[in-house]
Amino acid sequence: MTGAAPTSSPTAPPPPAPVPAPAKKRPRAVLVALAVLALSAAAYGIFLVTHLPQSVAIDAALAAKPSELFRLKGPGAGPLITMTLRGPGFATISAPGARLAAPTPGTLALLAGAVPGFKPSPRGVELRVTNDAASLATIAVALVADRSADASVDIRPRILPDGSGFAITATGAALRASLDWSSPPPGKPNTGPVLMSDDGALLPLGRAVIDIPAGAALFIGSSAGANIRFDLGNSEERFATGGLAVRGLELRGAESASPTSLACGKPAGTLRPGLSGSIGTNACDAVLHVQAFKLDDQAHLQLSGSGFWMQDGAVRYWPLMADVASNIVLQGAFTAAVGFLTAWVTFWLGFRKPKEG
Asked: d(Cα 260, Cα 306) in Å, to the nearest integer?
């Protein structure tokens, strides 16, 4: 028996092709934000390049008013400043919190026995020396410490009713000061500085040396019109380059938290990358010298050497833009680079399609 021919089932139509989703468009706010971000990054990059501190040769005369001070950073142990008084006049040393190192307490007691009722001040030391036309008196101040980049010395001028002077304070190290004759007055071999008591009594000393602890102030003064010479550093070294070697120097207001002028010793041409374009007196080298210190109604000194330099708030930067502006080849290269960057950022923001998600 012949069966019926099988019937074929109708072929199912293929499924419709998926309709591609429309490309997502970046919201206008996102494009604006990306554009602002790109321009800000470019502007900050230009700021960093044009505000890159560069070490330069320094030869500058600086002056500090009585409301200001010089801060010497990282001076070595040894002589700091020597004051020589020539001709008629007097000089004084006042150091609250200091003690006499010479004469010793025993010798001082013997000397005081010759002045009935003399009592040294318990609050510190006050010395005075009077000079005449044929003698020289010397006050020498030294830093008593191993060489340390952390030690600093502040020098602040003072205007006195009968003369001028300055205050000197060391941080991170102690000071030692001596008062003596460089050339005694003729016919007065035993004269010298006198120690003053709180009640005005005077005790003659052959020579005086005082120790001033770290952080305590030493006040040095002289009479008006006195002929005074100052030497910074070790003026007795035969082959000395002159002046006092320091790692850094700041000129600042006595109550100010930031300096108006600043130098940080580094070999000339050194660059200091950073995020702010500012400089400080940290990580400096002892390639700066201060010298020619003098006093009138201000304190004056000469700074020389090389280093990062800010004067009256203006930092010396790597002169990139000045070089570009003065060189036509560099101008063309810089303009082409800026044009390429602008075109690339515009293309990336406006025409690059986002990834489908």
From this structure: 18
Q: What is the pLDDT of residues 56-110, one digit of tens each?
A: 999 999 999 999 999 999 998 899 999 988 888 888 888 988 888 888 877 777 7
Is residue 282 a contact partner of residue 266, using CB atoms and an 8 Å limit?
no
| Token pair belonging to 63 | 């002056």
The total number of structural domains that make up the chain: 3
Give yes or no: residues 195 and 108 share one domain.
Answer: yes
**Is residue 253 domain-shared with residue 167, that is, in the same domain?**
no
Q: Which residue has the tokens 């000395």?
A: 240
In a domain, 111, yes or no: yes
Domain range for 60 = 55-73+249-294+306-314
Same domain, 106 and 181: yes
Q: Are residues 169 and 39 in the same domain?
A: no
Q: How many CA atoms lie within 13 A of 331 on its CB side?
A: 5
Instruction: Say if 23 falls within a structural domain.
Output: no
Distance CA 92, CA 81 (A): 15
- Which three-class secondary structure state does DSSP give residue 332? helix
Is residue 100 exposed (0-12), middle (13-18) or buried (19+ Cβ within 10 Å)? Answer: buried
pLDDT score, position 187: 65
Q: Do 236 and 178 lie in a common domain?
A: yes
Window from 236-250, 257-271, 291-305 with minimum mean pLDDT: 236-250
| CA–CA separation, 21 and 314 (whole Å) | 59
Dist. CA 78–CA 200, nearest whole Å? 33
Largest CA distance in the chain: 165
Half-sphere exposure of 68 (CA within 13 A, CB side): 16
Domain presence at residue 9: no
The model's pTM is: 0.76
